[in-house]
Design brief:
heterodimer; A: 221 residues; mainly alpha; globular; B: 241 residues; 76% helix; 0% strand
Chain lengths: 221, 241
C-alpha cells in the first residue's frame, strides 16, 4: 500500500509540476480571493487583522475544491483506471497517494497565502509552532476529505457542481478549527487553540482511515 | 393483509394525534410564567427536532449500513434510506423555521450563531447534498452504494460538527426533558402534551416515509420497465445487443 501511495503521489506531483495548473490557476485563485475579501471588508487595518485567519482559510477551502477536482480528473480517465488495474495498484494506496500529493499542493498554497495575509492584512507570526500545526493538519484533512468525496461525486461532468455541495458542509469544522488555531499562531487570539488542533487531528485521522477503507469500493462502482 | 391495514392506519392516526396535540397545546395547556404563549412552541419544535435529527437520520444511517453489508444488501434499504432523508430534510427545515420563530421573542433575533442552530443548519445542507447525489444518473446499485457511503460519512461527521460548534459558541437553552441530571423541567399536562407531540410527529414521519417509499419503489419499477421495453424494441429491430 505504501509503495503504491508513493508511486501515485510522485505521479500526481510530476503531472502538476509539468502542467503547472496549480501554479497558474489554483494559486492565483487563492490570492484573488484574499484581494476580494479585502475589497469587501474595506481598508480598516484592525478589521482585516481580526478577520485574517478566517479569510485565509476560506481562500484555502475554496482553492482546495479546485485542487480536489483537478486531482480526480487525473484519475477519472478510462486509460488511467485501466493502467492502475493492470499495475495491480492497491486502491487504498491510490487514495493515500492522491491525498498526499494534494496535501503537498495545499501546503504550498497555504505558505503563499500566509505570505499574502502578512503583507495585505498586516498580521505577523506570533508562534511558528502553532502556525505550522495549523497549516499541516488541515492540509491533511482537506485532502483526505476532498479525494474521498470527489470519488463519491461521480464523473467529471457532475463533479464540478456536486463536489462543493458535498464537501463544504463536511469541512465546516475544519474551517472553524483551523481559523481558531491560526488565530493563536498569528497572535490574533490566544485561548483554547490546543483543543482545536486536537479536533483537526481527529478529522484528519478519521478521513484518512475512511478513505483507505472506502476509496476502493467507490472507484469500482 | 395486517401489514397493509397497519400501514393505512398510520396516516389517519398521526393526523388525529397531531390535531389533539394542537388542541392541547393551543387551548388546554396554560401559558408559561416566563415565556407566556410563546411556550406553546414547545409542543412543536422539540418534536420536529427529535424526528429530524434522531429518527430520520438515524434510520438513514442504519438502512445505509444494512445496504452496504453484503448479507443484507437490498435496494429496499436504499429506498428506505432515501425516503427517510427526504422526509428528514423537510423536518429539519421545519425545525429551523420554528426555532427561528421561537428565537425572535426570546433572543430578540431571527437567527443567532448558536451551536445547535448552526449544527442543525449544517446537517440540513449535508443531507441536501445526499439528495443531490441521488439525482446523479447512475445504475441503481451504483447510486445506492454512493448514497449509502455518503450517509454513513455524514453520520460520522455529525459528532465532529456538533463538538466544533459547541466549542465555537452556544446560547441555546438546555434540554427540557433529557437534560444531564435527567430531571425534567416541565410537569403535568404540559409534560403529557409534550410527550404526545413526540408520538404524533414520529407517527407522521412514519406515514410520510411509507408513502415516499412506495413512490420510490414505483419509480424503480418504472425505470426497470422502461429499460426492458427499450431492450425489447432493439431486439425487435434485429439489432445486435
Amino acid at each position: 500500500m505504501w509503495r503504491d501511495a508513493l508511486l501515485i503521489a510522485r505521479r500526481d506531483l510530476t503531472i502538476e509540476l509539468r502542467s503547472k495548473v496549480g501554479i497558474w490557476q489554483i494559486l492565483p485563485f487563492g490570492l484573488l480571493a484574499l484581494f476580494l475579501f479585502a475589497f469587501a471588508l474595506g481598508p480598516s487595518t484592525d478589521l482585516l487583522k481580526a478577520s485574517a485567519p478566517g479569510l485565509f482559510w476560506l481562500a484555502v477551502l475554496f482553492s482546495s475544491i479546485l485542487a480536489a477536482q483537478r486531482s480526480l480528473n487525473i484519475e477519472g480517465s478510462v486509460a488511467t483506471r485501466e493502467a492502475n488495474r493492470l499495475l495491480g495498484l492497491d486502491p487504498a494506496g491510490v487514495f493515500l497517494g492522491k491525498a498526499a500529493a494534494m496535501a503537498v499542493e495545499l501546503l504550498v498554497l497555504e505558505v503563499v497565502l500566509l505570505l499574502g495575509i502578512v503583507l495585505l492584512f498586516h498580521v505577523a507570526v506570533a508562534s511558528w509552532l502553532y502556525v505550522a500545526a495549523a497549516l499541516l493538519l488541515p492540509a491533511i484533512g482537506l485532502s483526505a476529505a476532498g479525494v474521498l468525496y470527489g470519488s463519491l461525486a461521480g464523473g467529471a461532468t457532475t463533479r464540478s457542481t456536486l463536489l462543493p455541495i458535498l464537501v463544504l458542509p463536511v469541512e465546516a469544522p475544519v474551517l472553524i478549527a483551523a481559523s481558531k488555531s491560526l488565530s493563536r499562531g498569528l497572535g490574533v487570539a490566544t485561548a483554547g487553540a490546543e483543543r482545536w488542533l486536537v479536533l483537526l487531528a481527529i478529522f484528519s485521522v478519521v478521513y484518512a482511515v475512511l478513505g483507505i477503507a472506502l476509496y476502493g469500493p467507490l472507484e469500482e462502482s | 393483509m395486517m401489514r397493509t391495514a397497519l400501514r393505512k392506519s398510520i396516516g389517519p392516526l398521526s393526523a388525529v394525534l397531531v390535531a389533539v396535540t394542537a388542541w392541547l397545546g393551543l387551548v388546554v395547556t396554560p401559558p408559561d410564567r416566563d415565556q407566556g404563549d410563546y411556550v406553546r412552541l414547545v409542543y412543536l419544535h422539540p418534536a420536529l427536532a427529535w424526528v429530524a435529527l434522531y429518527v430520520a437520520f438515524g434510520m438513514a444511517a442504519v438502512c445505509s449500513l444494512l445496504y452496504l453489508w453484503k448479507r443484507t444488501r437490498s435496494l429496499r434499504f436504499d429506498r428506505l434510506a432515501a425516503s427517510a432523508v427526504e422526509v428528514g430534510v423537510v423536518f429539519t427545515l421545519l425545525t429551523l423555521v420554528t426555532g427561528s420563530i421561537w428565537g425572535r421573542p426570546t433572543w430578540g433575533v431571527w437567527w443567532t450563531w448558536d451551536a445547535r442552530l448552526t449544527s442543525t443548519a449544517v446537517l440540513a445542507v449535508l443531507f441536501l447534498g445526499y439528495l443531490a447525489l441521488r439525482r446523479v444518473p447512475a445504475e441503481a446499485h451504483v447510486r445506492a452504494r454512493r448514497s449509502a457511503v455518503f450517509a454513513l460519512l455524514a453520520a460520522v461527521n455529525v459528532p465532529i460538527i456538533h463538538f466544533s460548534v459547541i466549542w465555537w459558541q452556544t446560547l441555546h437553552q438546555g434540554a427540557t426533558v433529557l437534560n444531564p441530571n435527567l430531571s425534567p423541567t416541565i410537569h403535568g399536562l404540559m409534560a403529557w402534551t409534550l410527550l404526545l407531540s413526540f408520538l404524533a410527529f414520529t407517527l407522521l414521519f412514519a406515514w410520510m416515509v411509507t408513502v415516499r417509499y412506495e413512490i420510490e419503489t414505483l419509480r424503480g419499477d418504472d425505470e426497470q420497465a422502461g429499460l426492458a421495453a427499450a431492450i425489447a424494441a432493439r431486439r425487435a429491430e434485429g439489432a445486435p445487443l
